[in-house]
Amino acid sequence: MKKRKLIYSLIVGLVILILLGITGGSYYLVSYAFKPDPTVKSGPKGKVDKKLLADQNWLKKQNYQNWYEESATDNLKLRAIYLPAENKTNKTIIVAHGYKGEAMHMARYIRLFHNLGYNVLAPDDRASGQSQGKYITFGWSDRLDYVKWIKQVIAKKGSDSQIGLFGVSMGGATVMMVSGERLPKQVKAIVEDCGYSSIESELSEQLKQQFNLPKEPMITAARIMGTIRVGYDFGKGSSTKQLEKNKLPIFFIHGDSDTFVPTKMVYENYKATSAPKKLWVTKNTGHANSYNNHPKEYQKRVNEFFNKYLK
After folding, report:
1. CA dihedral in degrees (135, 140, 142, 147; nearest 10)?
2. Hey, how many other C-beta atoms are within 10 angstroms of the C-beta on 153?
3. Is the pLDDT of residue 20 over 50?
4. pLDDT tens string 63-110
5. Rounded mean pLDDT, 295-301
């Protein structure tokens, strides 16, 4: 009898330890993934980022405006950079930034579209740049904020506005998530660069790559923890599910050597939509480096795509 009680106590103790480990691990994962990193805003470093620094210096010298919007949920004050075209136009590209980034980190793309003659609106997403918020939402809550930014462009620039959506990495996922919402007729086309197929898939991939851990049970526990702490179930944040509802022409770009957002995800995203679509998998290219590695071809293809639909 005593032996049986001892075995039972050991089993109960082991279960408690496992549960505590999973709970602690999920808490850490949510903090690690969803809390913004202030050090990212300290400035670009490294060889590639010298280009970014030059583009940021260029942007700071431009006559851009600060626009503000209230988030679709949670009553947060959001900020965006608006850079008008040199020559008056009704064409505007809304640019979505990447993970733990901000609008200023999209300076090279803002410059690209400005040089092509577009107005450019570049929001700071929740918990990014000068926008309020405690947690990054990986594009899912942000998608509703972008609908409000779209409506602000129309309100300020006119009902004849022609709007394109563009995003890189998390920004690519964001604009894909936006595509499944009911959008004003002024939104004409989307270009996404290396966005993930779903938040859960991306976090599972990073759990494996960075911590050498399997998807379960940590992801399910993190979904519960994220719902409590961040305020939404990230398991619902799916680019592919939103793309199934998309009616807009969309251009998918991805590097063939991307391991951060694995290249296989672009094929999942491409397959998910029945709307007019194009796919370009760039050669010898890692994550978010298609424009760096193929600048002339990138500009040509993106410009041709938007020109076709923004008239």
Report:
1. -160
2. 22
3. no
4. 999 999 999 999 999 999 999 999 999 999 999 999 999 999 999 999
5. 98
3-state SS record for the chain? CHHHHHHHHHHHHHHHHHHHHHHHHHHHHHHHHHCCCHHHHHCCCCCCHHHHHHHHHHHHCCCCEEEEEECCCCCCEEEEEEECCCCCCCEEEEEECCCCCCHHHHHHHHHHHHHCCCEEEEECCCCCCCCCCCCCCCCCCHHHHHHHHHHHHHHHHCCCCEEEEEEECHHHHHHHHHCCCCCCCCEEEEEEECCCCEHHHHHHHHHHHHHCCCCCCHHHHHHHHHHHHCCCCHHHCEHHHHHCCCCCCEEEEEECCCCCCCCHHHHHHHHHCCCCEEEEEECCCCCCCHHHHCHHHHHHHHHHHHHHHCC
**50's tokens:** 């010298």
Q: How far is residue 286's CA from residue 84's CA, in Å, rounded to a whole number?
A: 32
Quick one: 144 exposed, middle or buried, by C-beta within 10 A (0-12, 13-18, 19+)?
middle
β-bridge pairing 77-83 and 65-70: antiparallel
Encode pLDDT of 263-297 as tens digits. 999 999 999 999 999 999 999 999 999 999 999 99
**CA distance between the termini of the chain:** 83
